[in-house]
Amino acid sequence: MSFISVATRAAARAGGRFVGLGAVGVGGAAYVSSQVDEFTGGIVGATKSFYNQASQMAGDLASNTSNTIERISNGANKTAFHLSESLSLKFQDFSSNLDNLFNKNNQQEDDDQYHEGSTGSSSSSSGSKDSKNPYFLGLSTGLGLSVDNLDRESSKLKNDQSNGLMHLTRKLIEIRSLLLSIDKDESLVLPSIVVIGSQSSGKTSVLEAIVGHEFLPKGNNMVTRRPLELTLIHTPTSIANPNRKDYVECEQFGPGQFDDFREVQRRLTRLNLDVPDSVAVDDQPINLKVYSPNVPDLSLVDLPGYVQISSMDQPEELREKINQLCDKYIRKPNIILSVCAADVDLANSPALRASKRVDPHGYRTIGVITKLDLVDPSVGASILSNDKYRLALGYVGVVCKPPQSSSSSFESRLLRRGSNSSMSTSEELSKQEFEFFRSNSDHYDQPNLSLGTDTLKQRLMKVLEESMSSSLHDITNRVSLELDETSYQYKLQYNDRAISAETYLAETMDQLKRQLVDFSKLLVKSEVRELLRRELDQKVLGLLAEIYWSDRRMVELTKLSDSKVGPEGLDPYWTHRLEAAQSRLTKGGVGRSTAELVSDEIRFAVHRMIDRQPMNYHPNVCEELIVITDDILDGLKSRAADHVEIAVMPFRYDVEIDKNDWESGRKRATRLVEEEMRLCDQFLRAEKAELRKNWRLREAFEHVREDEERLRRRAQRRLMVEIEGKKDEESLIDEPEETRPPPVLLDRARRLRDMETRLEVLRLRSVGLKSKRCKVGPESKGFCPEIFLNVLSDRLSATSTDFISIDLLNRFFSTVLSHLFFLLTFFKEIFIKIFFKYFSSLNSSKFFWGDRYRMR
């Protein structure tokens, strides 16, 4: 009877496993179905409308996930049916065997009663045979085989579920990449895993253990200076290709696949070292994709490690830059992989501190404890128990220390160059990690501890899939809002009317023509003349500052403004100065400079046109329009410059000026001088405010003043020697180099001193321009050069405008409009193909028209 009780309990336990496994399978299928139904109901419908590529991907995703769930559900149902059928058959066999067993026992008891003369030994022998009855052996063997079959079927069902979720995660990562390529401002984004940690926490070893290759930059100094957006793509092997190679693709490397991970490491190191030491950290990411049958589908971001103190060759704000960069990535909805070393107290971990700041309860944070082999096993087990610094997702302990090799480093590098060497290294790491935890099983063999790199991979896949699935609802809502907005814009701009490729092209070209015509109306002769006058006024100011205002005899000219000296009594020195200024202004390439100025204005206007809608949707057309514009201008501006130079040639020798021209020139010259005074005074105020704060700059300024005084005294002594014929017995002793201020401060102090002198001269000239001498008329041009040069620049701008308008502007607009017809014909077929490719559903209300969806 005791064996029957045991058999009954075994059957009940087997039946419980049958039913429990069926429930697990159906429950897992229901969970996946609910997740995928939410996904297919949201993202598929949204993306199908807003972009053809997204529509195709979403359709593939819906089809694949539906097939996956159908396969999982059918497998679960089929398995449950077979399990229940097998269960009933086994129980029928079990009942039949029990009945036969009871009948056999009853028959045996009748035989024993019939043979009363049997000996005790024979009875005991008969009892011994009954204990080895073949029915019991068959029943036990059948139950054991049934349990083994159920275990295999349960393992197969779990693998189907895992493959289905892996496929779903891969599709979600593809959609994340597509959303990032379309939406640059990251308003539509799916989460990824962000890896943070200090420079000595073992962050690089963890990533390489997940990938199975050594490919990340390594070095003594800070080598990770840019974020690395790492996408792992699982490429399963097949019968046709059982030895699929691992390879890498990277935008920054250029086109092609790279299967030499040592070369990948060198290229990554070069990209990071391209960031100068003065900057130290750049927020432009490196996009890297790893294809391998040995990696899970994950989206990871590796960031520069936290530092506590900057070195001598690093900027002082390095720590703050790294903190800001990490804070940018660890915000929602990204998952945080906080890597901490076991030999450092978690209370001092910068990665854990940063994650606690943005994720206080640890709902998005997975803690990874490295270097467990450097601490006592009891200490490592207590850290992983998640008792002191709790995280909702817990901690995972890993040992990623590279295996020690007895060969030399050179030999080990040669061995690792083979295609299978990296995988053997990965296997050695996994084996070493397993041996470590097995040898310390007294402390680490606890059900609440998560150990090993494989466990970390599975947890990352599960958390990433759950996080992405939970974010899909919000993505779907945002895409729906953008579709509504673009539908509204379509109704607003096209009044809900159906358009074709030809009408769209014609309307686009008409709009471009209207913009060119409007610009030609704005750039009339008066505008061109004002543009050229401003340019020539700056040249006049430069000539005055170089020829007159920096001259130490300028005070004499100012004093002559109020005297009774006539033009014939003016010192020839000033007459020669005025002729030099006139010659430099008229012979300084007026035609070329004015033609270049107007050409640049036209180019700027064309760039403004193509930056607007809808031209900014067609980069090829915009490039062609820019080429056409440059070709036309290059052919016209040289001719216009030659004509301008011929027209202004008479002004090199003589300029006829009447009384009205002189008075208007005097007023403009006064305004220019006063504006220059205002700018000088503004500069001096700012510099003197800095002078009061910076004692070293103040010392340099005093040093410049003393140098000027010494030079003035030396000039006076030399003058006296020449007059009296005496020897200059006093010599000027040079100042020792050690006592002089730094050259940078000296240059700044000299510039400040020159500006003070300039302001004093401008004040004198402002008074002179308002004096009676300068109001007389053109005969006072030697006393008032500012007025004469201003009138001359006005004549030059007026003459240049006439020829620029005829030879450059009018010819350009007529030529470019004729070229637009050629552009229309040339791009007609391309436009139609692009139109029908991207706008196949023009008559639907979901036609979208916005900045985010551009025709490439």
Automatic annotation (TrEMBL):
Enzyme class: hydrolase
GO biological process: membrane organization; receptor internalization
GO MF terms held by the record: GTP binding; GTPase activity; metal ion binding; microtubule binding
Residue ranges of the TM segments: 816-836
Principal location listed in the UniProt entry: mitochondrion
InterPro entries: Dynamin, Dynamin_GTPase, Dynamin_GTPase_CS, Dynamin_N, G_DYNAMIN_dom, LIS_MGM1, P-loop_NTPase
EC number assigned by the record: 3.6.5.5
Keyword line: Disulfide bond, GTP-binding, Hydrolase, Magnesium, Membrane, Metal-binding, Mitochondrion, Mitochondrion inner membrane, Nucleotide-binding, Transit peptide, Transmembrane, Transmembrane helix
Location(s), subcellular: Mitochondrion inner membrane; Mitochondrion intermembrane space
Start and end residues of each Dynamin-type G domain: 187-473
One of the record's GO cellular component terms: mitochondrial inner membrane
Low complexity bias locations: 117-128, 405-427
Catalytic activity line of the entry: GTP + H2O = GDP + phosphate + H(+)
Region: Disordered, residue numbers: 102-131, 402-427
One protein family per Pfam: Dynamin_N
Family: Belongs to the TRAFAC class dynamin-like GTPase superfamily. Dynamin/Fzo/YdjA family.
Protein name per UniProt: dynamin GTPase
Provenance organism: Phakopsora pachyrhizi
